[in-house]
Write a structure and sequence with these properties.
With 158 residues, the chain is an alpha+beta fold. 36% of the residues lie in helices and 26% in strands. Helix 1 runs antiparallel to helix 2 and helix 2 (38-59) packs antiparallel against helix 4 (112-119). It binds adenosine-5'-triphosphate and magnesium ion (MG).
Length: 158
Amino acid sequence: MKSRYDNEMELEFLSRSNNEAFARITVAAFCAQLDPTIEELADIKTAVSEAVTNCIVHGYEDTEGKVKIKATLLNDEVEIEITDSGKGIEDVELARKPLYTTKASLERSGMGFTIMESFMDKVEIHSVVGIGTKVIMKKKIKKQENIEENMEENALIN
Ligand SMILES: Nc1ncnc2c1ncn2[C@@H]1O[C@H](COP(=O)(O)OP(=O)(O)OP(=O)(O)O)[C@@H](O)[C@H]1O
Ligand SMILES: [Mg+2]
């Protein structure tokens, strides 16, 4: 069946902190097809890193489970869906607030969702207590003039 997207990928991995870099680099490599600037790519990586870290430290806490990522490209926009089947969020509006954290004792600053919102164009949070959490983030990648130069630059980073 033909996809309604220009491209799509899915990723599933264990909720271990050493998989966070794997997730962020893989999503960035997939998004590189839209010829993002270094800065746009860095924004996507940071947002993915925050969302995945949340699944690991809050969703699954002391347990272990699967984190799923689905990324789709359509025209100039990337949509990234990051899902855990962990404990869920009781009050999503409160969790979104800057500096709100349930783990202050563990040196969390409560800025994860705020960072995702500032680096991506849109962030949706869907969560059910006891079932899990899904974060959907969208970002438009601007068309640029010097695509070749940029591709060379992109080849140098990860
Ligand atoms: N996947 C998740 N599952 C369960 N709870 C979550 C999840 N993601 C976020 N939360 C809850 O939302 C709160 C706010 O998340 P946010 O990422 O903004 O801050 P933080 O993770 O506490 O701190 P920081 O991201 O700055 O280290 C968390 O403290 C946690 O209570
Ligand atoms: Mg966080």
